[in-house]
Every structure is written in C-alpha cells, then in structure tokens.
Amino acid sequence: MIEVDDGEGIRTIRFDRPTRRNALTPDDLEALESAVAETPHSVIFLEGAGPAFCAGADLDVVAGLDRDGAEAFARLGQRVANAIADSDAVVVAGIDGAARGGGLELALACDIRVGTPEATLGEPGVTFGLFGAWGGTVRLPRIVGEGVALELACTGRVLEAEEALQAGLLSRLEDDPRTVAETIVEYPADTLAVLQSRIRDRADRASQEEREAIAFGTLVESHGEAIARRFG
Questions:
Q1: 91: Cβ–Cβ under 8 A, 6 or more apart, which residues?
Q2: Which of 30, 71, 72, 110 would you call most buried, defined as having the most Cβ atoms within 10 angstroms of its Cβ?
Q3: Is 115 left (phi over 0), alpha (psi -120 to 50) or beta?
C-alpha cells in the first residue's frame, strides 16, 4: 500500500505494508508512479512504515509469474524508478531499516538518500537466483563503480549504514532523515529545478557549460533583488 501525505512544500510518500517489510506489488508500483508524477510540490520524501524502508518486489507475486509476466513486472519497476529519477521535485529517500532489491533500486533513483544509523542496504537477489531488474544493473555501477557493484550484486552482501555511506549508496546519515527534506524545501523551487537539470545533464562539457551560464543568468535576474538585500 502507498500512502501520500501532502504538507507545506513536501509530499511524503510512504510504503505502508510493514508486515511484508513494505514489499511492492504491481498495483503498489502504479500507485507510487502516480504519487510521484502528480505532485505539485518541490520536494518528495520517500519513506517506509515500520522497521524496513522497502524489501523490493513482493516475491509471492514474482513466484507466480511466467516469463512474459516477469518481464512486464521488471519494466513496470523500471518505469517507476525512471519517474522518480526524472521528477521535477527533489526526491529524498529516508532509509530507516532494510532497503533490499527493488527497494534499494528505487532509493538509487532518488536525488538524495539519507539513512539512519539502523539503515541496511543490499541486492540479495543472487541468493535465490535473481537480480535487481528495476534499473539496478544500470544505476548501481554509476553510483558505486563497476567493481563495487559487481561485488555487491554477485555476493548479495548487505551493507550496514556506515559502509553504505562510504560506498556512496547513502548520501548522509541522520537520526531523522526528514530534516534534510525540510531544509531543502526552504530554498527557491526554481533554483532546485535548475540544480537538478544541470547535475543530471549528460551532454558534452561545452554544452553543459553553456546551459549552466544561461541558467545562472536566469536565476540572477529572478533573485537579484533578494540577493542585493541580503548581501548588498
């Protein structure tokens, strides 16, 4: 089940199936996609109910799929992860407890991953003959490097919070990850959007720098008076 709570500037999206460690069915994924795509907020905070962030795909569902159904489930998970990654909102994952498989993959699609000291992260699919297919083999090596990605994926090893931070799976550790979202939402939404588009840009350097300069000029024009009042 996906719960949505709209506050001032922040949409909180919660995986709320604690008895199954917030494992996700296809219906859950579609609800998550809608919650991400339809928000007018500048910040999304993604969290899990109970002692886990998200265990990924509901394996009871997976076990009942044929080949075509499994491919469709993978593509749905990829689509949802891409919706998170492409969101105009800054998406902050608050990871308290276990993020496994698809849960980790959805977290990897977020802009910022904040873990508590109790966070644990891993891709255990290999231990039962599978792997993370919601974009995991794409995003994991980009974030931690190919060597670490292969070691994590091929061993199924679970990382504690400090090691996950050192590996780059987590952006930072906080006792209350929501405080990061609450800090970000205080900043101008247009500046946040520019930062996302610039940092995500994969064009050649010259093109990136040209777009960077244009965006900087636009923001100075928009916020020049406020800057002058603060620093003038």
A1: 36, 43, 44, 46, 84, 109, 110, 111, 112
A2: 110
A3: beta
To 10 degrees, the CA torsion angle through 182, 195, 173, 43? 30
Query: What is the distance between the alpha carbons of residues 41 and 87, in angstroms, rounded to a whole number?
Result: 10
User: Where does residue 100 rank: exposed (0-12), middle (13-18), buried (19+ CB within 10 A)?
Assistant: buried
Which region among 25-34, 140-149, 194-203, 209-218 has the lowest average model confidence (pLDDT)?
194-203
Average pLDDT of the segment spanning 62-75? 96
Helices (H), 22-66: 26-37, 59-63
| 156 backbone φψ class: left, alpha, beta (φ>0; ψ -120 to 50) | left
Length of the chain: 232
List, for residues 105-161, the tens digit of each pLDDT value: 999 999 999 999 999 999 999 999 999 899 999 999 999 999 999 999 999 999 999
**Which pTM does this prediction carry?**
0.94
Please return the burial class of 66, using the count of CB atoms within 10 Å of its CB with bins 0-12, 13-18 and 19+: exposed
Is the Cβ–Cβ distance between 17 and 63 less than 8 Å?
no
CA distance 106 to 126: 18
Ramachandran region of residue 196, left (φ > 0), alpha (ψ -120 to 50) or beta? alpha
Q: Helices in 38-188 by DSSP H: which ranges? A: 59-63, 67-85, 102-108, 136-144, 146-155, 161-167, 178-184
